[in-house]
Write a structure and sequence with these properties.
Largest sheet: 6 strands, parallel
Strand order of the largest sheet: 5-6-4-1-7-8
CATH class of the largest domain: Alpha Beta
Strand content: 15-25%
CATH architecture of the largest domain: 3-Layer(aba) Sandwich
Structural class: alpha/beta
Number of domains: 2
Number of strands: 17
Number of helices: 15
Helix content: 25-40%
CATH superfamily of the largest domain: Phosphoglycerate kinase, N-terminal domain
CATH topology of the largest domain: Rossmann fold
Length: 401
């Protein structure tokens, strides 16, 4: 049972509904290169509009440093929004607070949709300023959070607004929370996790939390080098945080106590430097030359990882297993992604992945549609995996008490 309220719990007809979404889409010039974040919030927006709400959309866009920046104006998203919302009456307001916005809101009819200007043009948004929060709340009767990807931020439109108005979870947010709960809080076991990326230090809390909850933990990428180093294995001139060797040993001890099996690569793809078209070798992990860098897991590791994961009923993935952005060091990530995608599609595996690099890697592998759930969140997904309470979610739960 959810401990927050959803769209099923109120009647939106005639109400001014403030909907916080994340429209922070990637751009090249004025062209959107990935519309995914826009498409994912359409179910909430269209449902509220069809039910007769006056839908007022709130979002940030980039990092404008609390001042107007035309390149970061949400007006540039309007053509895409209008195209995605054909048949709906959508308009744009040149600010997100003030008399102009109030005038635009006052002119709205039931079913109308109004996109407000970038919240981060005002310093009050990121400062979680009570005055700014109150000005936002004056525009609406109800607040809906449909932005899990920024729910780890204690910002005005995420945290404070939920305390000032009756507040509910949108369809995307509800979907994310339910999928994540199924993956980590009430999973089908065995539960496996794949954690990659460059540094242990950025995912220390994540690793400490996961070893207490998962049955299998596969560690790849640069952070695996730190684990290998801590085990006394020569890693040449590979990227590693050698000063964290004792910390890593403590994580391994905690895993042993909780019954979590940590699996590292048994072979490596190495080169003398990270560059395009390098001269590479595939070697046993105990045979890495002193002048070489480990840049990907080798075929024996891929086979072993796949065998271990084949025993799992649920898998969580965060971070690539090698320097996937440069060929041929994408092979381990792509091969394992295809294996997990196939197991999800054909064998009933539950697979949840999140984080910007992770999504990019799975898209590169062509399996983004095959995973059970691909989180749109980056930092929020990571903090949730770390076991942290997210300010935006806390606010919704408080409202439900």
């Amino acid at each position: 049972m959810n401990n927050y309220r959803t769209l099923d719990d109120f009647s939106p007809k005639g109400k001014r509904v403030l909907v916080r979404v994340d429209l922070n889409v990637p751009m090249q010039g004025k062209r959107i290169t990935d519309k995914n974040r826009i498409l994912k919030v359409l179910p909430t927006i269209t449902r509220l509009s069809k039910a007769g709400a006056k839908v007022i959309i709130l979002s940030h866009f980039g990092r404008p440093n609390s001042q107007y920046n035309d390149d970061l104006s949400l007006k540039h998203l309007m053509p895409t929004m209008q195209d995605a919302l054909k048949g709906f009456n959508i308009s744009f307001s040149n600010d997100c607070i003030g008399t102009l916005v109030h005038s635009d809101v006052d002119m709205m009819k039931e079913g109308d949709i109004l996109l407000l200007e970038n919240l981060r043009f005002h310093a009050g948004e990121e400062l979680n300023d009570p005055c700014f929060s109150k000005k936002l709340s004056d525009l609406g009767d109800i607040f809906v959070n449909d932005a899990f990807s920024v729910s780890h931020r204690a910002h005005s439109s995420i945290s404070s607004l939920a305390h000032l108005l009756p507040s509910y979870a949108g369809i995307l947010l509800q979907s994310e929370l339910e999928s994540l709960a199924r993956a980590l809080e009430t999973p089908q076991r065995p539960l496996g996790a794949i954690v990659g990326g460059a540094k242990v230090s950025t995912k220390l809390k994540l690793l400490e939390n996961l070893v207490k909850k998962v049955d299998l933990l596969i560690i790849g990428g640069g952070m695996a080098n730190t684990f290998l180093y801590a085990r006394g294995i020569g890693i040449g001139k590979s990227l590693a945080e050698r000063d964290l060797a004792e910390t890593v040993k403590n994580i391994e001890k905690a895993a042993g106590i909780s019954g979590c099996k940590i699996v590292l690569q048994s072979d490596a793809v190495v080169a003398d430097e990270l560059k395009q078209d390098p001269k590479i070798e595939t070697l046993p992990i105990t045979s890495v030359p002193s002048d070489s860098m480990i840049l990907d897991a080798g075929p024996a590791s891929i086979a072993e990882f796949s065998e271990q994961l084949s025993k799992c009923k649920t898998i969580i993935w965060n971070g690539p297993l090698g320097a996937f952005e440069i060929s041929p060091f994408h092979e381990a990530t792509v091969s394992l992604a295809k294996f997990v995608g196939y197991s999800t599609k054909k064998k009933g595996l539950t697979s949840v992945a999140g984080g910007g690099d992770t999504v990019a890697a799975l898209t590169q592998a062509g399996v983004e549609e095959e995973f059970s759930y691909l989180s749109t969140a980056g930092g929020a997904f990571l903090e949730w995996l770390e076991g942290k309470e997210l300010p935006g979610i806390i606010a919704l739960k408080v409202q439900n008490k």
